[in-house]
Queue: 4 jobs
Job 1
Amino acid sequence: MKKWDTTGIENWGWKKQPLGATIPTAGNAVDNKTGGWRTERPVQDAEKCTNCLLCWINCPDSSVRVKDEKWDGFDYEHCKGCGICAKVCNVGAITMINERGEE
């Protein structure tokens, strides 16, 4: 059974769009790469990081990767550069750097 009929959605006018937008399938956030929205990217300093994983707990986009209970990198395809990870890092191991060449 088809949950949502989005056939031809790219050609829909605003009157056909449902209120609150359309979410064709649950759990589709992984398919939507949102990293292009970012103007700053988080960079981790491995020497300062204590692997407390506060960055992982607080990341609203699940863009902090963890492997074997340790920080394993950032998912830049989905990280929007909000900087929450840098704000919650107690040891200053994450720095936000401009990636658009603007000051």
Note: The mean pLDDT is 87.
Job 2
Amino acid sequence: MTTTYADSTTPGTHTIRPGAFGNATELRCRECGASSPLGAHYACSECFGPLEVGYDFPTVTREQIAAGPHNIWRYRELLPVPADVASFPNTEPGLTRLVRADRLAADLDLARLWVKDDSGNPTHSFKDRVVAVALTAARELGFQVLACPSTGNLANAVAAAAARAGIRSVVLVPHNLEQQKIVTTAVYGGTLVAVEGTYDDVNRLASEIAGEEETWAFVNVNVRPYYAEGSKTLGYEIAEQLGWRLPEQIVVPIASGAQLVKIDKGIRELVELGLVEDTPYRIFGAQATGCSPVSAAFHAGHDVVAPVKPQTLAKSLAIGNPADGPYVLDVVRRTGGTVEDVSDEEVVDGIARLARTEGIFGETAGGVTVATLAKLVRTGKLDPAAETVIINSGDGLKTLDAIAGRVGPKATIRPTYEAFTEAGLA
């Protein structure tokens, strides 16, 4: 059976092919629970609450997953994508390495620590995961342009995915974004627009454009319910790479908050499907103090998140009005975690600490996560004896300015051994 629909957010009338969204069955309001049909909807028609994808999962086995592609499409039965998703040109993200971090663990007096290193994705951040799912939804819904507002990593991922798929991209970024992220977006040949203002200003502009341009799919606006599902694959991979079991503690950086919330959703789905044992786990959120509205709400005991104006070097996390902030609060409180924030100086320390101990050069978001992990240990809020996983969401080569003033050559010498020894380097 084919489904034909038309609404105000789609380009005229588009026919959805059978199985376009796999085992997804509906879009469900996260506030009132009302159900909407699958389509280009992102706000509840009853209460304007955000929508997320609901499913009717079949039996899924570990063997089926293991036999799948070496990327996120091995979990296609658990995502809103068609069975033939891997046959379309895409960046094939996912299945990044889970690094056992014994030296960092020893540095922090932890018993066992892992780093889920998502800098290994095609554009060197976890955003390739969410964009791959959003691109699939955009294609199945008949959109012709892939677009986004971004703090940098998403800009890279959208521009690359669109180039790979052979469609136009339009990316909006704050004008003061790191130069490395501007270059690594522009190189893909799409339309890159620098906007005078913060990310929240850029996001408002994107929402306005999305309402006017009917053929444009803004991955984190009008196809956001599908886009966000891509982050579940982080939770799936962590469990699979640990031998189909759950870690006891996970520390996740917070920008919009969707990554943390969807990792939790992915874990709960694995439990419901019997793919992992239902063992206790705690999720912790990490923010930079210069943009820490979720941390502030958590410590004040609030259920809502008051917007702030970001002022931090961790620009990839600088979202002053995080869309999933309230849901982050729900997850960390339900699992017994917390949300903490760290200064920019601590962020730089965190970048250097991860690089020095594990040979992993994380971007500023990774620095936030490592510094928050250290703070959680120092303040006794994280159990040092429990197995812990932290997320490194992007590559340090994208935020060189953050660390450039801290590191450099030990000495500059003449090209002779005598000069080498005179400098005390032998």
Note: The mean pLDDT is 95.
Job 3
Amino acid sequence: MSTLGLVRAHVKVQFLDLLRWPGYVVPTVVFPAMFYVLFDLPFARRNAEVADTTALGFIAFAIVGVTLYQFGVGIAQERGRPWERYLRTLPVGAGVRLCSRIVTAVLFGLITAAVVAAVARALTPIDLRLLQWLQVLLFSMAGGVPFVLIGVSIGYWTSARAAVPIATACNLLLAYAGGLWIPPQYLPDFVQRISPYLPTRMFADLLWSVTGTGRAPAALAGLALYTLIFAAVATIGYRRDERKRYA
């Protein structure tokens, strides 16, 4: 089977595995939209000029939460499962495993983000045209990749118990400091100074560029750098875990 076929087969298996757990899938998909309704919807409805910005920030938050937190914790827990041990006996390299993880996590993140977008479209004066929504889709796919790799790195470098608090802290701190919940100009001064260097802020800038309030080239360059760094960290962690458990 070709490499592309192997990636496709792994993605299919991972999606079917997720669908077997509705108690996990439904809250994961609904949580970011619920968070948006509780904390940002009233603000967005009163201030139409920031409705686009806040909705796009929560679309980024939905993708980051799924890719970094859910998949990072999931990998740490799966490492001890018999199914994972079986997969490690197959003649499949780390590249195929990582690619399939990235595709599955980004697709799942897009489903979660679509719920946020539907809520924002129905309940706020968000004003994006079809072409802008298509840009949001493309940028969401590209911007989600480094967060999958951060999650995979956490999954392979930490224990199952440690992965939960570490991934939770990373998810919440990066979302807050990146300005995904509130516009960056409302953050404390010291947070505003570090915010532009965080991957969440770069992801937000990428999405905000659709409305003319962010710079896409700089954001893409920063996210590409984070992708390279955490691709290396995740690959080393995968091979380290493989040597430790199966050598």
Note: The mean pLDDT is 86.
Job 4
Amino acid sequence: MPMNRYLRILFVLLLARPLVRLWFGVTVRHQDRLPLKGPAIVLANHNSHLDILAIYSLFPLALIPNIQPAAAADYFLTNRLFAWFATQVVGIIPVIRGGAAAGFDPLADCKEALKQGRILILFPEGTRGEPETLSEIKSGIWYLYRDFPNIPVIPVYLNGLGRAMGKGRWFPIPFFVDIAIGRPLPWLTEKAAFRASIKDALLNLKQKTLLSLPGPQ
């Protein structure tokens, strides 16, 4: 087993799981809907760097080397040490935003990961938004799914992580976190309809998470 596979398992075992399970109060709905083999795509809303850790914590450790999140190259590859940690320990697939305008396929490495049977984590809003507010769904997921229309695409809504450690924060505060996992999304040939179906699925899951959160939302 290559060294980075051990590093990734240790990262989840020693950091992601303890932080998510012990530091936060976490409720998970329909964890059995997560894919246990690839190729598959897990789609989630994005409000915090903790989102990746939370999703990793839901999977068996043995699967971690086969799961990779796509993340912005211009953020995670800013220096050699950060790039090494992001790619070798966290296991991100760097995506160059705006790459299509420069004449190359920014999703090429994501497609290769799916061809190799991996489970891909995508944040279809493209970047972290305001806590618990769903931003516009980008078109990239449609172009990716178009080439793999028969694989399962599973929506996941993460509620609470944006307040626990939102944009601009570097230390998590204890906050109740609720995670809801939906059923596989169907492929739709019309781009706008597919993006709308993703947004509808995530908003529906959000409502389910609100049912168990304490206090007014």
Note: The mean pLDDT is 88.
